[in-house]
Design brief:
CATH topology of the largest domain: BirA Bifunctional Protein, domain 2
Helix content: 40-55%
Number of domains: 2
Bound molecules: 3,4-dihydroxyphenylalanine
Oligomer: single chain
CATH architecture of the largest domain: 2-Layer Sandwich
Number of helices: 12
Distance between the termini: 91 Å
CATH class of the largest domain: Alpha Beta
Amino acid sequence: MENKLREIQLRVMQSIEEARQSANLEQIRVSILGKKGELTGLLRGMGKLPPEERPKMGQLVNDVRAAIEEKLEARAAELKEKEKAARLESEAIDVTLPGPERGAGSLHPMNIALQKMIEIFVGMGYEAVEGPEVEFDHYNFELLNIPKNHPARDAQDTFYVDDNIVLRTHTSPVQARIMTTRKPPIRVICPGRVYRADEADATHSPVFHQMEGLVIDENITMGDLKGTLDEFARQMFGEGIRTRFRPSFFPFTEPSAEVDLTCANCRGEGCRMCKGTGWIEVLGAGMVNPRVLEMCGIDSTKYSGFAFGMGVERMALLKYNIPNLRYLYENDLRFLTQYR
Ligand code: DAH
C-alpha cells in the first residue's frame, strides 16, 4: 500500500505540474481527493489492514493528501496569474493608434478677403453695419436717385419680389438706411450679399458680395476719398499698389469715378491679366450726390460725403490670383483648403 501511495503521489504531482488551466486542476482534485477519488478509496480500504499498521498508513495517506493539496493550491495560484495576464493582454487597447481623422476646417477665400477688407476699414475708424437682403425699392433705388423708369435700373437686372420689394442689387441701400437714421459724422462700411439676374460665368454670379463705404461730415472732399482708397489698396495688396480714378456716372454720386488699382500681377508693367494696361478696374465711387443727401434728410449745404462700392469676390480673385469666379462657388475642398 505504501508503494501504491508513493506511486499516486508522484503521478499526481506530475499531472498537476502539467495542468494548463484551472479547470484541469479541478478534475485532478476530484479524481484523487473526491468522494470516489483514488486516495479516498485507499483510505476506505484501511479497514482491511492489520490494526498495528493502521496509524502509520493513516499518517502516510494524510501526508500524501496534504502534499497534493498544497501542490494543487500553488499551481492554482500560478495558473490564475497566467490566465489574468493572458486576459489583460487580449483586452489591451493600443492608446497610440491614431484616431479617425477630423480635418480642421478653413475659411473660404471670399471670407478671408472680406475679413481683411473689414479689418482695414475698421482700422481707419469705420463701423461695419448691415442691412436686409430683401429690400424695399425705396432704399434700393428711389433714395439713391434711381427713380422708376430710370435707365440705370436696367443695368441692375433686378429680381423683383413684388412691385415694391426686391432682392437688393447692391449694398448701396444700406447707405440710404444709415443716412435716414443717423446724423453726421457718419463713417460706415456695409458688407453683404447682393443679387442680380445674371447668367453665371467666369466673372458673374446671380449671388455675390459687395462692400459699401460711406463717409459724411463737414468738408469731406474727393481728396479724402482718394487718400482712403489709396490706403486701402496699399494694405490690401501691398506697397506700390496705387489707385487711378476715371470719370464715370452713378445716379447716387456726383462726380463719380471708376477706380482702378495697379495690377498686382505685373506691378503696373502691363501683362495679360490687365490686358497690357497696368491697371485693374475694381470699384465704383464718388461724392454723394447732394440730391441723395437731401432725400435722406441731410443738409447738403453743411455736409458732404463720399461713397464707394466694391465686389468682395473680385477682391478675393485679385488677392489670390484665382482665374475664375466659379472656383469660389464649386466648393471643391482641394481648392478651398489652400487658403487659410
Ligand atoms: N452700387 C454700385 C454697384 O453696385 C457700386 C457703387 C458705385 C457704390 C459708386 C457706391 C458708389 O457707393 O459711390 O455697381
